[in-house]
Amino acid sequence: MDKTTMLGLYRDMWMIRAFEQGLEREFEQGNVPGMLHTGLGQEATQAALADQLLATDCFFPDHRCHGINALAQQRHSGDGERIMAELFGKATGVCSGKGGSLHSADPAVGNFGDNAVEGSYMATVLGVALASKLRGEPNVACAIIGDGTVGRGEFHESLNMAAIWQLPVLYACVNNGYAISMPVGQGHASADIVDLARGYGFPCEQVDGNDIVECHEKIGVAIAHIRAGHGPYFVELKTWRWQGIFAGEFRPDAEVKYWREDHDPILMTVDRLIGLGCTSAELDAIEQEARGVIDEWITFAKESPAPDLAKATANVYVNWEVTGA
Amino acid sequence: MTETEKKVRKTSFTKALNDALDLGMDRFPEMFLIGEDIGEMGGDFGVTKKLWAKYGGERVRDTPLSEAAIIGTCVGAAMVGMRPVAEIMFADFLGECYDQIVNNAAKVHYMFDGQFTAPLVIRTACGGGFGGGPHHSQSVEGWFMNVPGIVIVAPSNPTDAKGLLLASIESEDPVLFLEHKALYRVRAEVPDGYYTTPLGQAAVAREGSDVTVVATMRMVPMALAAAEQAAADGISVEVVDLRTIRPYDAETMLGSVSRTGRAVVANEAPRIGGLGAELSARIHEECFSDLLGPVVRVDGLDAPIPFSVPLEHVILPDETDISAAIRTAMEKS
Known about the structure:
The complex is a heterodimer of chains A (325) and B (333). The model of chain A has no long low-confidence stretch (mean pLDDT 96). Chain A has helices at 3-28, 43-52, 66-77, 81-87, 120-135, 153-165, 184-187, 193-197, 212-227, 253-262, 265-275, 280-303, and strands spanning 58-60, 141-146, 169-175, 178-179, 182-183, 204-208, 233-238. The radius of gyration of chain A is 19 Å and the shape is globular. Chain A has one domain: Thiamin diphosphate (ThDP)-binding fold, Pyr/PP domains (Rossmann fold). In chain A, α6 (153-165) links the parallel β2 and β3 (169-175). Chain A contains twelve helices and seven strands. Chain A is of the alpha/beta class and 325 residues long. Chain B has 333 residues and is of the alpha/beta class. Chain B has two domains: 3-191, Rossmann fold (3-Layer(aba) Sandwich); 203-331, Rossmann fold (3-Layer(aba) Sandwich). Chain B has helices spanning 13-27, 51-55, 67-79, 98-105, 108-111, 141-145, 158-170, 219-232, 250-260, 275-287, 309-315, 319-331; strands spanning 8-12, 31-35, 60-62, 83-90, 121-126, 151-153, 175-180, 187-191, 203-206, 211-215, 237-241, 244-246, 263-270, 296-300. A seven-stranded mixed β-sheet of chain B has the order 3-2-4-5-7-6-12, sandwiched between helices. Chain B has a five-stranded mixed β-sheet with strand order 9-11-10-13-14, with helices on both faces. The longest helix of chain B has 15 residues, at 13-27. The radius of gyration of chain B is 20 Å and the shape is globular. Chain B starts with 7 loop residues before the first strand and ends with a helix. The mean pLDDT of chain B is 96. The A-B interface holds A 58, 95-96, 98-99, 103, 105-107, 112-113, 115-117, 120-132, 134, 141, 153-154, 157-158, 160-161, 164, 311, 314-320, 322 and B 32, 58, 63-64, 66, 68-69, 71-82, 84, 99-100, 103-104, 108-117, 148-149, 151, 171-173, 199-200, 247.
């Protein structure tokens, strides 16, 4: 990977980390309603996808995908702050505050929205892919899922249907080791999800999800395969989430240290960039710039108005109005 | 609709639906059919007969037994402008794709604030009366009554079935289209060619002045038969065929009850929490001062539907129950 590409991905990873850390801070201060799932620790998976999916493609983000949502919004529409505003439930959000963290979408940038029912869009993604195939468009329909989703029936229905119909689906399975508190090896017949996917007969790859170079390269291969009309592709991205569970950290100290210090996607990229001749000052400036942008987005979100109350009953149906009692 | 200008011929409910699908496929290039055994076999009840041969496997898609994937495929395709029509062989199987209907089809327009629509139709065979047993006989409208965003269409005769299915295909909102199995072989005069019957509008199937019977699907022909009997006893019964269950036509129903002063609501599903409960509550709330007595409900008993035919008869309502309800409505007023 050339230095320019890597620097771009480094900046993107910092945008994600700064976004999530800023959001976490605001959440703790009570400024963000609802629940919070962050993508901290999983930045490489999202940066690698965001860099290679086009606005004409489609992706279904998972619960920890604020980062890719913001990157796609910024890259294709120039208004990443609208993802932040959505998480604050504001009128300026991409869904006017009606979707929030788990339902932020903007089809203009290829973002088809998360679904709070894990695995639900494993079925939905088939339809987007089928439409592309029927229309002869070279678009990729991507489902970004966690390891927990593998337990759902839709996971298997989806892989089977994509296989028999050779649909242009990219399955990006972000295996962060735990479905809330359930370790992946305890919840599934294999801790390596790729083992479960292989039976469906299309290409499956397992990738170090914290190695931005490997993530970017393998996702690139998968996207090229799908765009060329060769059918679905499954990529398992092995990573680890920083966020614990409601009660706090529950994982062994050595595991926490390994992933946060020795195998952190940003620190690993720093080493690589220094090796390519970048200076610490240059890299620090990228981090500071990202944090500055995110602070502006947070200010925008906080200062934005709440949605008009009429929005509460707007767009229930296309053909009927729903009125208050 | 310009029914008077169209040629009319005696057609079965099944053939009327088949004609509607054929006309829709012909008119809308973005429409496709998807479901189990709907291709060369023509569907378990023959509703998609000959369409595979005419439109090919790309647009008439046979699937494995994957109801969630079938409806998910419909939602995703509809989100990008296709117009899918799914067949779920038996309504009892809707549990397999309940999440796709309730959390996706019904909500993508709302939760993303209008950025997507889900113009899809889910056709499914419902209802009992033929010894189908607990998992092939249910009336499921109550499962979906409490879901904002979904349209529930429930025709009672071949003429409406065709027009309502074409209106459902044209609809920008997701439609659950209920086909009562006992009606498939019913024949009636059906106009040739393309026409739509508006969604959300009830029909007055018979005019009367003493009591209103509000009915759906198979309960409509039963209500008409009961009305005929009541007429012999000097009771004039108005029959309102709801046709669309959600959003339903309150105006027609309430207007009729205001005039007659008495109401019977007839629905095959179990009593508690069902359509009958909603209609009865609404009539009591909005027609209280016009009512000469309480609303009388006719519905299925609060039990699953057993296989043995005599037992099934115990559970499901029929025209005798409607006749009894009409008498009760007259006596209690």
